[in-house]
Amino acid sequence: MLWSYAIKYECDRCQRHYELLQPLNTCPDCGGLLEIEYDMPAMKRDLSPSLFAGRERSLWRWHEFYPISEPGCVVTLGEGGTPLIKSVHAAKELGLSELYFKNDTLMPTGSFKDRGFSLAVSFAKQLGLTRGLTYSSGNAGSSFAAYASRAGIDATVLVEYLANPLKKALIAFYGAHTATLYFKSMDEITLMLEKAVKELGLYQFVNFINPVRHEAMKSYAYEIAEELGWCAPDVMVHPVGTGGGIWGAWKGYRELYELGWIKAKPRMVAVQPEATAPIPKAFQEGKPRADRHGDPTKTIAQSIAADSQIQGGERVLKAVYDSGGFAAAVSDEEIIEAMRLLGKDGICAEPASAAGLAAVRQAVREGTIRKDDRVVCVITGSGLKQAYLIQERIPESNLQVEASFEDLQRLLTSLWG
């Protein structure tokens, strides 16, 4: 049995193949996005769900499904294996019988990005790379900085000017070189990064331009399906910035289905803020590619605020269409209400993460999600990453009490009767 069953890169666009030993970003021939292929017949022969039952709950529990062939190159901070929490309060309010939250706020740097960077940095280490660059709205930069620092890789992060000061500070805290990136559209960033690959040979860790990061997001499918008794949910909801999370999860479910470990695949739901929602707009128009749309400065959901997608968001839209899912745009007001609702269930989520629950509420109201559907929302990042927003929106209590029994008794009587 192999430690990894990965066999090659394949280009989405021209279908050309490349060896995995090469430090590639996009296709050297046509510039298309690269996907990692696996020896599925061998996996079918060698692997079974029971093989994983006794392993430690972490991202690396599923190492056969990743392109790391040298275990000594694994760079880990304890990512993955986060709890799948069944909702009590949100489910009741929405009238859903089975609503679950995949709580990635508990990851080492506070966001789901740790899955991708653990794998991508491990792969870079296996390739012998000593430096790399990524673009970030905040969370990815922190994660890359932490894992690169641990691996001894010299990290540079271009962090967008819209990122809040705490996120910028965390990137530097973990040891990366940081530069504030100014731009008018995400298109400018994509063009700059793709040109840097071609002309500078610069290895990058940006989702999709890097062909490895989203492979780690397949772990959502493995972890969720296992916890549900090797069944996929009916609906899986994921906030979308570049879209590595939803694409990776969909790939994971497809693998499990091909292996025969699950009998059905979920409908995948991509969520973006109303102010800048190129994916929902393309979906509504039935297009395979998303055009530039919206204004990223007009939403509180910083982590998923992008007016255009890398290579038109073709992968994200393909996941939505192929799964029979949908794309939703939600307002800031709906996001704030979803944050409050998540708080009742004990989860402190940043606005981008709460967007998923806002979309579920919307879809239940419209009938797109049925009351008896089993629904999983990925909660991608901690609300503490935008703590100022919670401070602004949740007023401080005006109740006061002196340190005396009589005052305490009066307070509790007023509260509890």
From TrEMBL:
Tell me the domain of life.
Bacteria
Organism, scientific name: Paenibacillus cremeus
The GO terms describing molecular function are: L-serine ammonia-lyase activity; threonine deaminase activity; threonine synthase activity
Q: What is the lineage of its organism?
A: Bacteria, Bacillati, Bacillota, Bacilli, Bacillales
PANTHER family referenced in this protein's UniProt entry, alphabetically = L-THREONINE DEHYDRATASE CATABOLIC TDCB, THREONINE DEHYDRATASE, MITOCHONDRIAL-RELATED
The name this protein goes by in its record: Threonine synthase
Q: Keywords for this entry?
A: Lyase, Pyridoxal phosphate
- Give every Tryptophan synthase beta chain-like PALP domain span: 75-381
Q: What cofactors does this protein use? A: pyridoxal 5'-phosphate
Pfam family for this entry, one: PALP
Family statement: Belongs to the threonine synthase family.
